[in-house]
Amino acid sequence: MSYNLLKGKRGIIFGALNEQSIAWKVAVRAVEEGATITLSNTSVAVRMGDISKLGEQLGAEVIEADATSVEDLENVFRRSMEVLGGKIDFVLHSIGMSPNVRKKRTYDNLDYGLLEKTLDISAISFHKMLQVAKKMGAIADYGSVIALTYVAAQRTLFGYNDMADAKAMLESIARSFGYIYGREHHVRINTISQSPTMTTAGSGIKGMDSLMDFANRMSPLGNASADECADYCVVMFSDLTRKVTMQTLYHDGGFSSMGMSLRAMDQYEKSFDKYRDENGNIMYG
Ligand SMILES: NC(=O)c1ccc[n+]([C@@H]2O[C@H](COP(=O)([O-])OP(=O)(O)OC[C@H]3O[C@@H](n4cnc5c(N)ncnc54)[C@H](O)[C@@H]3O)[C@@H](O)[C@H]2O)c1
């Protein structure tokens, strides 16, 4: 259902790769709500993924850019203003990648060259995007910028590796830049901390199926889907949230406030069954 929340607004969506991508769902919802948008991803992603199909479906130009390149980002903002006919009202940063995770380097055996790449792609690209936009005057006053993050920035989760450091930095950039951009142009900058979601990036996380099941059992409202995340992004891009800025906004069914739930406890106890004696007491061995 459309509420026309983004009627007349212009946006840029970074990071749609395929139909599972959170950015894909956000792009579709934003257009449903009346926005006109451009899409951006790396040239490899454009070649290997389905973003061109999405562009055709939504009537959106696809602009190739490596988000670690200031020059590429300048081109995305310049071209988007040309195509869309004015300043940009909203931006989604939906970009994350860890070469250390890909190469199966554990957190106590990181390759530091690869760590720099993780941070550049997953966090510093957000700063570059904001700095480029501000210098070019590309984001309209009262615009809204969102980056997607994960609770591993606050709490240690097995296997999330150096992406946890990248997410902590990403959230910090949202606060630091949010202050400056808010003060000068009323632009609001927030991060949305999403439940584990089965996407190309998500499936790279160690033990993703178990993590999703655990998070779902722990969350009173259950895991938030990519479609639900898109709904939340639309609200944050809309004029209904004009005084929300510099926040990490949890979109996780309540997971981040939980310690233990009955549903998780119940599952956890099952693992003890084979270690119980005839009286039902756990044998610790
Ligand atoms: N899937 C999850 O469980 C989950 C949970 C919380 C937050 N997030 C975050 O959501 C965002 C989107 O991820 P997703 O789950 O939709 O997966 P995805 O794989 O569909 O999206 C990741 C995107 O990053 C792009 N990318 C990688 N390197 C890039 C570069 N140098 N320049 C520009 N783009 C680049 C990829 O091409 C891809 O489109 C990421 O920031 C991710 O960390 C995901």
Note down, in words, how this protein is organized:
- The protein is of the alpha/beta class and 285 residues long.
- It has a single domain, classed as 3-Layer(aba) Sandwich (Rossmann fold), CATH 3.40.50.
- 44% of the residues lie in helices and 15% in strands.
- The chain has a 7-stranded parallel beta sheet, sandwiched between helices.
- Strand 5, helix 7 and strand 6 form a beta-alpha-beta unit.
- Helix 1 packs across helix 9, helix 4 packs parallel to helix 6 and helix 6 runs parallel beside helix 7.
- The longest helix has 25 residues.
- The protein is globular and about 75 Å long.
- The mean pLDDT is 96.
- The site of nicotinamide-adenine-dinucleotide has 26 residues, from helix 1 and strand 5.
